[in-house]
Design brief:
Elements: H1 2-11, E1 17-20, E2 25-27, H2 29-36, E3 47-49, E4 57-59, E5 62-64, E6 73-76, H3 77-87, H4 90-100, H5 104-116, E7 120-122, H6 138-142, E8 149-151, H7 171-178
Parallel strand pairs: 3-7
Antiparallel strand pairs: 1-6, 2-8, 3-6, 4-5
Helix pairs in contact: 1-4, 4-5
GO molecular function, one term: glycosyltransferase activity
Protein name: Fringe-like glycosyltransferase domain-containing protein
Domain Fringe-like glycosyltransferase: 11-154
Length: 184
């Protein structure tokens, strides 16, 4: 993560948001852009994502929510400017991860909560691979076009029938469903 922050700061004038997604995610970019438009990234310090646990994390009696990179996380420009000294140079951020024995997604949430009083804003339409019933419950497939992100891992892939040959992980089919593309 620290390198991502470094790259963002080199280009920050061009971008109001830094969003981070895993490589096993589907991201509906038009929906993401529409979602982020409701916020003022230059004036609001926002940390947006979806937790993977049902309970907040606890450290030294401090309870905080963290978003998993498996669902995607977005940081506003205002937030990034606020925490710049904590994440750059990147050695400081990495030392914090090591000292707390936290991976980067948990460490950033802890840092935001304890040092800056910034908490996670939960994005309900961000979905991660840990939501095991996401693709197995048929009613969920009917509103799949509202999902901004969908995480995949192992056998946790959509259970609907693919509309393309060799669409093992249903990504092409999912793209068609999420963007309302009809195959002729």
């Amino acid at each position: 993560s620290a390198l991502e922050f470094h790259i963002y700061f080199a280009l920050e004038k061009q971008f109001q948001w830094l969003c981070r997604f895993d490589d096993d995610q589907y991201v509906n970019v038009p929906l993401l852009i529409d979602y982020l438009r409701q916020f003022e990234g230059d004036s609001q310090a926002l940390y947006i994502g979806k937790p993977s646990w049902k309970e907040p994390k606890v450290r030294h009696h401090i309870r905080f929510w963290f978003a998993t990179y498996g669902s995607g996380i977005c940081f506003s420009r205002r937030l990034l400017r606020t925490i710049r000294d904590e994440v750059e140079p990147d050695e400081r951020f990495m030392r914090g991860c090591i000292a707390l024995n936290y991976p980067d997604d948990i460490h950033i949430a802890y840092l935001l909560h304890t040092k800056f009083n910034i908490n996670l804003r939960i994005a309900e339409h961000f979905h991660h691979h840990i939501e095991s019933n996401l693709f197995t419950n048929p009613p969920n497939a009917s509103n799949i076009d509202q999902a901004i992100t969908l995480g995949f891992k192992g056998l946790n892939v959509p259970r609907f029938v693919p509309i393309f040959e060799r669409d093992t992980f249903r990504m092409q089919t999912l793209h068609c469903l999420c963007t309302n593309v009809v195959r002729e």
